[in-house]
Design brief:
Aspartate Aminotransferase, domain 1; 13 strands; 39% helix; alpha/beta; Aspartate Aminotransferase, domain 2
Length: 385
Amino acid sequence: MSGNLIYLDNAATSFPKPREVLKKMLKTYVRSGVSPGRGSYDLADEAAELVYQTRRKLTRFFSASDPERVIFTANATDALNIALQGLLRPGDHVVSTRLEHNSVLRPLYHLEKQGMIEYDLVCFDDSGYICPQQIMKAVKHNTKLVVVSHASNVLGTVQPAKEIARLCSEHGIPLLLDAAQSAGHIPIDMHSWGIGALAFTGHKALLGPTGIGGLILSPGLDIRTTRFGGTGIESRSLIHTQSFPHRLEAGTLNLAGILGLSASLDYLEQKNYEHLWQREMALTQRLYDGLRSISKVVFLSPPPTKQSVPVLTCAMKDMDSGDVGDILDGDYGIAVRIGLHCAPLVHVDLGTDASGAIRFSPGPFNTDKDIDFAVAAMAEIAAHS
């Protein structure tokens, strides 16, 4: 941790980053930090090869099919915008859910207000899960895409993506999976599940730096170019190249971020990221058990299970979540996320859209002591409220 800070906001961004990742990222960037694919000299070729190696690592990590269809973006929000605007056409219908982050809700709303598409949002059940059959019931004759958040950033629930993808495939509709909260926690098999497109970010459970993410596409998925610019190839033409991955990548890539992501993937493989997830879930269970003894704490998240990510959201009776967060930070040195968590419809459905909620999200470098201190702090706040 940084100083005396107890950081429990890893669902927003993981912190601190593993020292091994930062050291490897910096060492490689100092040696090879030139513009990849933009020169005929050896160092530019080396930088381009490092980028391609990272595409291959991501292809293996997500069990995808083709490194050429790994598109680097700034983050998951950027990836989702590229996918939605590149896949959808006038008159199309989209099915999504009320669990979604604003990174999905706002682009859909924008496209609807532009008169381009229409969409329907499926409700989640009392346990925080989406029923795949309910998604299918929302499908219309002009439904061209289903968009689902793999793991809720408010409730921590992991949706049945494999079953949803199977049903989508039976209807000939691609599934766009938002893996911002699941990538690095939950194994994802794009090929065997039949996922059409996957959006991820590097700075959360993948333990990489901010400013790097990606969009991974299945073979044959047709997607339009929505941004245009330099690619380092076919420079004589004023038409943006349609070959992958350059079709969806305009301008110089974030090489430092890509190198950091590459190093973090190596770290996760070495440490076995499923073991890290199990440890984080044990901390989440410890937190849940401790907070459950405080009568004024009301849980929004269901109890942690094997179908969860390490996220626990709650509220304090008779207190605004912002006030609780300020006290945790100012008096106890505990960092949590308060408010609506950029997922307003979840809070509307839970009745917490006025006061918001408090989200705890342990990470790989938290300890049992951190969790016990957070529980004690919440107990003191409740006692004096």
